[in-house]
């Protein structure tokens, strides 16, 4: 009897001891589960932040590019990232399997994001280099255009100088009024002829050959002395009247020229003008007075 009683007591002691150990293990497991759940909750929150960050970063990358194909790829990855973010938000922190899967997906998203950042960075560097190169080409083009414009102006100025250098020039213009006996007179009523003498200056740059000289005599009232109103020649885009036309053979050397105007009209007292033209240019002028 005493032996049975001892066994019962021993069994009770063992039972209580087992219950104690079991309670300890259960409490410990509950604590560990709670800690694990808290850890998953923190990890889930961090993952949500990363997913949100990547989704926003895709928006920023899309703003930086002008490539339609790359833009569509970024849009696809952005939508995928937002879908995974929504899945993560729906998952309970106690669902270790889903959190682990979404954690792996996040690793892939991170790697894809890095590759796109590198690709866009490379494109930006290329675009920057092209922009710099284009700017340099533009500057060179503008400089070349400026130089060409300067050359055109210089050529024009040179041509003008050459034209002026090749132009005939007249000096020593003298007008001698004479009467019917060939004597010099200043009285208009006695004048029957005007003798006009002048010198064509030597010019080795001028073309030699036949030239036409036009002598234009104007009265004090600026009326041109002419035998026929049809006697005109071109000057500065218009036809103007002349008094005398003279053909010469120009040799490039100094030449003395004399022309005559036979007076058949009334001459008034005052200051007259003589203008000499050749090759469309006025090459000399002189005034003279009659009484």
Whole-number mean pLDDT: 79
What count of structural domains? 2
Uncertain parts: 29-34, 158-164
β-strand amount: 15-25%
Which word captures the global form?
rod-shaped
Radius of gyration: 56 Å
Please describe what this structure looks like:
This protein has three helices and nine strands. It has 291 residues and is α+β, with helices and mostly antiparallel strands. The chain folds into two domains: 2-127; 170-290, Immunoglobulins (Immunoglobulin-like, Sandwich). The strands form three sheets. The chain has a four-stranded antiparallel sheet with strand order 6-3-8-9, with no helix packed on it. A three-stranded antiparallel sheet has the order 1-2-7, with no helix packed on it. Helix 1 runs parallel beside helix 3 (96-165) and helix 2 runs antiparallel to helix 3 (96-165). The termini are far apart. Mean pLDDT is 79; it is low at 29-34 and 158-164.
Question: What's a concise summary of this model?
Answer:
This protein is an alpha+beta fold and 291 residues long. The protein is 54% helix and 24% strand. Helix 1 packs antiparallel against helix 2, helix 1 (2-64) packs parallel to helix 3 (96-165) and helix 2 (68-90) runs antiparallel to helix 3 (96-165).
């Amino acid at each position: 009897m005493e032996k049975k009683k001892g066994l019962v007591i021993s069994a009770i002691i063992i039972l209580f001891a087992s219950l104690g150990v079991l309670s300890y293990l259960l409490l410990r497991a509950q604590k560990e589960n709670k800690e694990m759940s808290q850890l998953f909750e923190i990890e889930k929150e961090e993952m949500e932040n990363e997913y949100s960050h990547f989704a926003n970063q895709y928006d920023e990358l899309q703003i930086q590019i002008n490539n339609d194909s790359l833009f569509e790829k970024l849009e696809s990855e952005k939508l995928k990232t937002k879908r995974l973010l929504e899945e993560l938000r729906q998952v309970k922190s106690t669902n270790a399997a889903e959190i682990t899967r979404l954690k792996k997906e996040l690793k892939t998203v991170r790697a894809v994001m890095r590759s796109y950042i590198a690709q866009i960075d490379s494109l930006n560097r290329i675009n920057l280099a092209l922009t710099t190169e284009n700017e340099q080409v533009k500057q060179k083009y503008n400089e070349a255009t400026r130089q060409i414009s300067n050359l055109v102006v210089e050529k024009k100025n040179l041509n003008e100088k050459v034209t002026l250098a090749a132009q005939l020039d007249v000096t020593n213009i003298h007008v001698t009024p004479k009467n019917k006996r060939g004597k010099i007179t200043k009285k208009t009523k006695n004048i029957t002829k005007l003798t006009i003498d002048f010198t064509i200056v030597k010019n080795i740059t001028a073309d030699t050959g036949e030239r036409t000289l036009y002598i234009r005599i104007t009265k004090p009232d600026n009326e041109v002395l002419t035998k026929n109103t049809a006697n005109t020649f071109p000057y500065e885009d218009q036809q103007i009247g002349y008094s005398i036309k003279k053909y010469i053979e120009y040799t490039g050397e100094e030449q003395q020229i004399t022309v005559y105007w036979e007076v058949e009209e009334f001459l008034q007292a005052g200051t007259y003008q003589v203008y000499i033209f050749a090759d469309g240019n006025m090459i000399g002028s002189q005034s003279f007075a009659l009484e």
